[in-house]
Amino acid sequence: MSVSTEDKVKRTWGYVAEFDTAASVYEAAKAMKEYGYRRWDVHSPFPIHGMDAAMGLGPSYLSRIVFCGGLMGSLTALVLQFGTQVGLYPTIVQGKPDNLFTIPAFFPVTFELTILFSAFTILFSLLVIIRLPRLHHPLFESKLFTGFSDDKFIISVEARDPKFAREGTREFLQSIGAKQVELVEEEL
Amino acid sequence: MNEYISKKDLPDGGEFFDSSKVGLLKGLLGLVGGVCLVATLIILFSFSRSAGEEPKLGDWASYSYLFAVTFFFTLAVGGLFWTILHHATNSGWGIVVRRQMENIAGLIPFLFALMIPFFFTQVRDDLWEFEPLYRDLVAKTEPEVAPALKKDHEHWKHELDAWTGKVDSTKKLIAAGKSSAGEGAQLQVRLKEAEANVALLTRHEPTEATVRHAIQDKSNHLLTHKWNMYFHASKLRLILYAVAFILMVWLLRKWSITTDKEGGERLFLRSRYWSCFFLLPFGVGFTFLMIDFLMALNYEWFSTMWGVYLFAGAALNSMALLIIVVTLLRENGYLQKVVSLEHYHLMGKLLFAFCVFWAYIAFSQFFLIWYANIAEETRFYLLRNAEWWNAASIVLVVGHFFIPFVILLWRPVKKNPRVISFVGVWCLLMHALDIYWIVIPERAPSLTAGNTPKLWSGEAVILDVIAFLGVGCTLAYVFLERLKGVSLYPCRDPRLNESINVAN
Hints:
Chain A has 2 domains: 10-45 and 151-187, Alpha-Beta Plaits, CATH 3.30.70.100; 62-129, no CATH class. Chain A is 43% helix and 15% strand.
């Protein structure tokens, strides 16, 4: 027994607009930025040089989180090693000192833990930021959108954007050179 | 993104350095450099001790001169490295700054000219003690060789005769055929043994060379029978390195400048092809030159990471110098259109990478020696942690690694020409300390070895400064002089547009 589409409760997710060339999508991205859209993205079959500048993307704040992660790794390693081998149970090996100057012996572990913590921080904070893993995305409903993995360039605008308007955005997308514009809806 | 700049927006024949604007600076550099260099050379050759005396001014100055020449040589060699690497990896980003890499590498021939004093015994003997020690050893042991050879040869002849006699007598017994089966087998065994001994002795007839080796070995096994002791091997090697390096520098520069005139891809492709091969003589030559110059300061010490350690410092600080040179040119109105902040970002990234690489190598070298705690290896670090050298070591760890590391982590720093140039100046200062810390601690202990041992001679620092200024200002003068003749960037390189508009 199939459920007719009319029976489903749907909500507007946003628009996808199709462009034919990298140059046109580049210009369109600039226009999008100038108009003031905030929740939108460009999808292309290959990386376009200068696109992040055209879109007005700033540097990622991931690096700051990773710096903290790396710092945590260094501190964990140093505290565990100094705490156990210098503080709690001073271990003297080959006449090496049991004070601050034994720090070279602890460097390899510190180095490795710094990298390990940084790598984990990158992976997991990235997953949190981009909200992965998820099973489905409304964009996958769009016929137009699939073209981005072949030979089309797509701009998607979310309805959550403060400047989004059901008719206005469609007209704006067409005015900046979109060949086709499609409304994307998500099922609730 | 900035607007796209293509070759059409640039002056046709490239940009040229106007040397009339820096006439005063050049004159000053030439004057200071010339005076200091001449003073150093006069001190080097006029005030040298003869064997057994207290060290004189010239002996202290040998180390100053080695320090100065090595410091600037590592910078110039780094320029060659970046040029070769840029070609060999088919990089596009740095074509606009490649001419400055070539200019820095272009100092290499002059540095080899400045190395001529290292061919003279009075300078060599102060720096590389194994040479006078080896000469003394030869002088001391040579009279013993002839009598020892005679004695050895007599003993050998006696042995050989005895075993030859045994072979003959056993053969006779076997031929007579009077023995029983058991005795016959025994005779065969005896014959085999005797024949083997005869063969062994024939192979090992004592010669003059083997006897000399044995005598020298007993006296000082570290010095003897090393192939590099003979035929002035290290001088020959220095000539070989000079030829190889000058050839590489000259060819790459010539091809690059010719492309400025004729354009096209011919020489660009040729540079790329040959640079892959140049990497090998570059690596081998630099490693062994640094072993000959610096590791040989203490002939009993060795480190397998020595070449990489010096190379890391060279590549790092040459990049620092490149950033400073490009910034100075831009501050004076050159390269405005071709070099963008993206190039600074890329150069800053390489500076950062090699800062980490230097620390990695320096730490690994220290760590393995420190942990293994073998007396013949630890002496390098023991000397450099004695008294005030310890402070220098700690400054090196903090200043050469931690400070630039933390600063260069920030992207805005890498994209700010002035700030990153200051970081570059800081790196160069630390590199000077690094080379100073390698060369100078050997000086006082080596020179005062036979007399009153000293760890440090404060008065000699003035010689270090004079030598440093002499070599440095002279090279800066040469650099400015050579800057004017050719375009400041490869103006007709086939991939110039790609390089100008690079984004990362």
